Amino acid sequence: MKILVVCGHGLGSSFMVEMNVQDVLKNISVNESIEVEHSDIMTASPEMADLFICGRDLEENASRLGEVLVLDNILDKQELEEKLLERLKTFNLID
Protein backbone atom coordinates (compact mmCIF):
# COMPACT_ATOMS: atom_id res chain seq x y z
CA MET A 1 0.00 0.00 0.00
CA LYS A 2 1.10 3.54 -0.67
CA ILE A 3 0.10 6.72 1.17
CA LEU A 4 0.77 10.11 -0.40
CA VAL A 5 0.60 13.21 1.78
CA VAL A 6 -0.17 16.31 -0.27
CA CYS A 7 0.00 20.06 0.34
CA GLY A 8 0.03 23.19 -1.78
CA HIS A 9 3.71 23.10 -2.76
CA GLY A 10 4.81 19.60 -1.70
CA LEU A 11 7.50 20.89 0.61
CA GLY A 12 6.94 21.87 4.24
CA SER A 13 3.60 20.74 5.58
CA SER A 14 3.32 17.55 3.52
CA PHE A 15 6.82 16.51 4.59
CA MET A 16 5.95 17.16 8.25
CA VAL A 17 2.74 15.13 8.01
CA GLU A 18 4.63 12.36 6.18
CA MET A 19 7.02 12.13 9.15
CA ASN A 20 4.05 12.00 11.54
CA VAL A 21 2.42 9.23 9.48
CA GLN A 22 5.65 7.24 9.65
CA ASP A 23 5.72 7.72 13.44
CA VAL A 24 2.14 6.44 13.74
CA LEU A 25 2.93 3.42 11.56
CA LYS A 26 5.97 2.54 13.71
CA ASN A 27 3.73 2.23 16.76
CA ILE A 28 1.19 -0.17 15.27
CA SER A 29 1.44 -3.54 13.59
CA VAL A 30 0.15 -3.53 10.04
CA ASN A 31 -0.55 -6.58 7.88
CA GLU A 32 1.61 -5.37 4.99
CA SER A 33 4.25 -2.78 4.29
CA ILE A 34 3.08 0.78 3.75
CA GLU A 35 5.10 3.25 1.72
CA VAL A 36 4.68 6.93 2.61
CA GLU A 37 5.72 9.89 0.44
CA HIS A 38 4.75 13.53 0.00
CA SER A 39 3.93 15.70 -3.02
CA ASP A 40 2.21 18.85 -4.11
CA ILE A 41 -1.52 18.66 -4.81
CA MET A 42 -1.28 19.77 -8.44
CA THR A 43 1.00 16.95 -9.64
CA ALA A 44 -0.69 14.26 -7.53
CA SER A 45 -2.85 11.84 -9.50
CA PRO A 46 -5.11 8.94 -8.49
CA GLU A 47 -2.68 6.24 -9.64
CA MET A 48 0.12 7.59 -7.43
CA ALA A 49 -1.25 6.13 -4.17
CA ASP A 50 -3.95 4.08 -2.50
CA LEU A 51 -4.62 6.75 0.12
CA PHE A 52 -4.03 10.49 0.07
CA ILE A 53 -3.77 12.70 3.17
CA CYS A 54 -4.29 16.46 3.12
CA GLY A 55 -5.43 19.37 5.23
CA ARG A 56 -9.03 20.63 5.21
CA ASP A 57 -7.96 23.57 3.00
CA LEU A 58 -7.19 21.17 0.12
CA GLU A 59 -10.20 18.89 0.53
CA GLU A 60 -11.98 20.13 -2.59
CA ASN A 61 -8.87 19.86 -4.80
CA ALA A 62 -8.02 16.43 -3.39
CA SER A 63 -11.47 14.96 -4.03
CA ARG A 64 -10.36 14.06 -7.58
CA LEU A 65 -7.69 11.73 -6.19
CA GLY A 66 -9.91 8.98 -4.80
CA GLU A 67 -9.41 7.80 -1.20
CA VAL A 68 -8.63 10.94 0.78
CA LEU A 69 -8.10 11.34 4.52
CA VAL A 70 -8.72 14.98 5.45
CA LEU A 71 -7.15 16.48 8.56
CA ASP A 72 -8.81 19.40 10.32
CA ASN A 73 -5.48 20.30 11.93
CA ILE A 74 -2.32 19.01 10.24
CA LEU A 75 -0.34 19.68 13.43
CA ASP A 76 -2.58 17.44 15.57
CA LYS A 77 -0.85 14.04 15.77
CA GLN A 78 -3.71 12.55 17.77
CA GLU A 79 -6.22 13.44 15.06
CA LEU A 80 -3.89 11.95 12.44
CA GLU A 81 -3.45 8.75 14.43
CA GLU A 82 -7.18 8.29 15.07
CA LYS A 83 -8.20 8.94 11.47
CA LEU A 84 -5.35 6.91 9.98
CA LEU A 85 -6.03 3.88 12.18
CA GLU A 86 -9.72 4.03 11.28
CA ARG A 87 -8.91 4.22 7.56
CA LEU A 88 -6.34 1.40 7.73
CA LYS A 89 -9.03 -0.80 9.27
CA THR A 90 -11.20 -0.22 6.19
CA PHE A 91 -8.29 -1.47 4.07
CA ASN A 92 -8.01 -4.53 6.40
CA LEU A 93 -4.42 -3.59 7.19
CA ILE A 94 -4.87 -3.66 10.97
CA ASP A 95 -7.15 -5.61 13.27
Query: Please, how many helices?
Result: 3
What's the order of the H and E elements? EHEEHEH
State the strand order across the main sheet: 2-1-3-4
Measured as a percent range, the helix fraction is 25-40%
- Gap between N and C termini: 16 Å
Cα gyration radius (Å): 12 Å
Summing up helix and strand content along with how strands pair, one would put the structural category as alpha/beta
Protein name: PTS sugar transporter subunit IIB
Organism: Staphylococcus coagulans
InterPro entries: PTS_EIIB-like_sf, PTS_EIIB_2, PTS_EIIB_2/3
Keywords: Sugar transport, Transferase, Transport
Q: Describe it for me?
A:
- The chain is α/β, with parallel strands linked by helices and 95 residues long.
- It is built from three helices and four strands, in the order E-H-E-E-H-E-H.
- The protein has helices spanning 12-26, 59-62, 77-90; strands at residues 2-7, 35-40, 51-55, 68-71.
- Strands 2-1-3-4 form a four-stranded parallel β-sheet, with helices on one face.
- Helix 2 (59-62) links the parallel strand 3 and strand 4.
- The longest helix is centred in the N-terminal third of the chain and has 15 residues, at 12-26.
